[in-house]
Amino acid sequence: MLCGRTNVNKFLVEEQRRNPALIGDVSMLISDVVRSCKAIGQGVSRGSLAGVLGDEGSRNVQGEVQKKLDVLANQAFLHHCEWGGHLRAMASEEMEDIHPIPAEHPRGNYLLVFDPLDGSSNIDVNLSVGSIFSVLRCPDHASAQPPTAADFLQCGSRQVAAGYAIYGPSTMLVLTVGNGTHGFTLNRDIGEFLLTHPDLAISPDTREFAINASNERFWEPPVQRYVAECLQGKSGVRGKDFNMRWVASMVAEVHRILMRGGVFMYPRDSKDLSKPGRLRLLYEANPMAMIVVQAGGQASTGDERILDVQPTSLHQRVPVILGSRNEVERIERYHREHASGEDQPFRSPLFSTRTLFRDD
Ligand code: AFP
């Protein structure tokens, strides 16, 4: 049936043998997550035929219009993951508060936080969307008390596992349990995700960047500098031409970067100073950062590594710059040079305004 290929369960058993710290609970929990993603992928692939496109007529805690599939995807995670006895609680982009495991089910020692349908603004135009998840251990002190949102506020470096499903031309699962990043492709004939991309590795350099260029006037200067240099191409300081992509679905951007390198940026911008970024730390930035770093890339806010950020609230947003290591580190350097004033434009009555980089 598997034609010698490894499915997710076999992969996890082999991982447990290699890494005894990865206990069976995590493997069983990931299997429940996989079932959630299969169910969501089924709904996404049927689209209009299933009557699941369009708006739900409600807004989520972020104030964003909920798509019907946002709500159905959230319900799929709750339905498949709450009964297994591995979790104490779940949290989601689509729920304002945490979802404690109901009393009728046994409670476990892990927390699951997820974006059930990332990129959902693309769902009605048939572009790739995905589900993102992150697994945390319950804090020791929390074991005897009811779970709270504070239990989820752990640095990304404490994640036990992270992954995403991407519902595209093929449905794939990308997973890390702390020992590399690995890709599985759904074989619809047997309903199994089969290992097709073991040990994914992001090239340290790239000629491709992804950013929503319509926000250029709002970006912080280090990002304006980086993108301006990319656009100058061969004639500029980079000495090479760049390509640009923007899918408006983080899962699709990260997947492309895992496959062929690149850098993805959703930086801090001045469009809404109350928000330090668009993307959410716990269920977008952190899991994607673990996946990227485990594949040899890097993930930063520009000022600090994403996995080091200490969360302060469940739906906290952060700036995100991730992908090919050398590009992320260059952008971090530009942030330091901006903070120190090294990149500030200097003005001289003799030479009018000059800058380190051309502004024409
Ligand atoms: P939606 O899930 O609301 O479509 O948002 C997707 C997302 O969080 C992330 O996946 C994209 O990279 C980013 O937003 C797209 O943002 P813009 O709509 O500003 O391009």
Characterize the structure shown.
GO terms for molecular function: fructose 1,6-bisphosphate 1-phosphatase activity; magnesium ion binding. It catalyses: beta-D-fructose 1,6-bisphosphate + H2O = beta-D-fructose 6-phosphate + phosphate. Mg(2+) 2 binds at residues 115, 118, 284. The chain has two domains: 8-197, 2-Layer Sandwich (Fructose-1,6-Bisphosphatase, Chain A, domain 1); 208-340, D-Maltodextrin-Binding Protein, domain 2, CATH 3.40.190. It has seven helices and 19 strands. It has helices spanning 8-18, 24-46, 68-81, 221-232, 250-260, 281-294, 325-340; strands at residues 55-59, 65-67, 87-92, 99-100, 110-118, 129-137, 161-167, 171-176, 182-187, 192-197, 208-210, 243-245, 263-266, 279-280, 298-300, 317-318, 320-323, 346-348, 352-354. The strands form five sheets. It has an eight-stranded mixed β-sheet, with helices on both faces. A five-stranded mixed β-sheet has the order 12-11-13-17-15, with helices on both faces. The chain has a two-stranded antiparallel sheet with strand order 1-2. The protein is globular. The structure holds 1,6-di-O-phosphono-alpha-D-fructofuranose. 1,6-di-O-phosphono-alpha-D-fructofuranose binds next to loops. The site of 1,6-di-O-phosphono-alpha-D-fructofuranose has 12 residues, from loops.
List the ligand species: 1,6-di-O-phosphono-alpha-D-fructofuranose
As laid out across the biggest beta sheet, the strand order is 4-3-5-6-7-8-9-10
Query: Share of helix among residues?
Result: 25-40%
CATH class of the largest domain: Alpha Beta
Unreliable stretches, pLDDT < 50, 5 or more residues? none
Rg calc: 21 Å
Number of extended strands: 19
Fraction of residues in β-strands = 15-25%
* Structural domains: how many: 2
The helix/strand series, from N terminus to C terminus, equals HHEEHEEEEEEEEEHEHEEHEEEHEE
**CATH-defined fold name of the largest domain:** Fructose-1,6-Bisphosphatase, Chain A, domain 1
